């Protein structure tokens, strides 16, 4: 296994763990600090809220990184379609880690946030990312 592959797998696993920690711990703590009404929510509403917080964090992280790549990354600018820039792969690995994490959260909380269309969407995106990586 070459160094690039190890970095991509490491990034994917780190991303998965980061988003799990955000969902299970950070979002609960942060939301309770920021909003007084959070503690009065039902468990189901807290699960849905935390899922949305993690989704927002993911979109900010990957979106800002993607914008940076689009505007400033020389290998991406030089050949955006056929180039093989490392940072783009890291961004895709980060997104893949999130998608796997979110799939696990959806499956574990199916009665609250389960939706077959979310599962189809996540699996389709993961399939596309697999072919890119």
From TrEMBL:
TM segment ranges: 6-32, 53-72, 92-110
Record's bilayer topology term: Multi-pass membrane protein
Coiled coil: none
A single GO cellular-component term on record: membrane
Occurrences of domain TLC (ranges): 44-133
GO biological process: lipid homeostasis
Location of this chain's protein in the cell: Membrane
Name the record gives this protein: TLC domain-containing protein
Source species: Myodes glareolus (Bank vole)
